[in-house]
Specification:
mainly alpha, elongated, 76% helix, 7 helices, single chain
Length: 155
């Protein structure tokens, strides 16, 4: 039975999303490593000025507050953590892009495992971004469960 053109588009969309997150995390990890042995807050202030962002913006002030406690040890931990998550997202994204069944199971397990933490964070400090992230992850899990339950054409 030939595949319908629309069949698997959802998997490719999720794969692209996972790969985009992987590349973003690699950028964060590399950025964290580049900040080693430097004054992190001063570096960020330089970039804030270069991009002409309002330094009194609520989000910028929060970012500077968080970065003021960054030392070399925390930067290394941040970079290691982001590289680990990037590896997970690459595994999910590539597996889904190649339409591997194991990748669907893996993505369901990894995505669903973070849902309780996301709910906790949402109840602790609700925000539109957290609600959006939770809804996206719920949709990914629901879609992948649907895909796994749907019969597949044999190759």
């Amino acid at each position: 039975m030939p595949k319908k053109p629309s069949q698997g588009r959802g998997l490719l969309l999720i794969a692209a999303f996972k790969l985009l997150k992987a590349f973003a995390l690699i950028a964060v990890g590399v950025g964290a490593l580049k900040l080693l042995h430097k004054d992190v807050a001063a570096s960020i202030e330089h970039w804030i000025a270069a991009f002409q962002v309002d330094p009194h913006n609520h989000f910028i002030l929060k970012l500077l507050e968080k970065l003021s406690i960054m030392d070399d040890r925390r930067l290394k931990e941040l970079s290691v953590g982001t590289f680990i998550y990037a590896g997970i997202f690459f595994t999910e994204g590539l597996g889904l892009a190649f339409r591997k069944r194991w990748a669907e199971y893996f993505t369901i397990i990894t995505t669903a495992s973070f849902l309780p933490l996301e709910l906790y964070e949402l109840f602790k400090h609700a925000s539109a971004g957290k609600v959006f992230a939770l809804l996206i992850n719920l949709a990914v899990v629901a879609y992948l469960v649907y895909e796994l339950r749907r019969p597949r054409a044999r190759h």
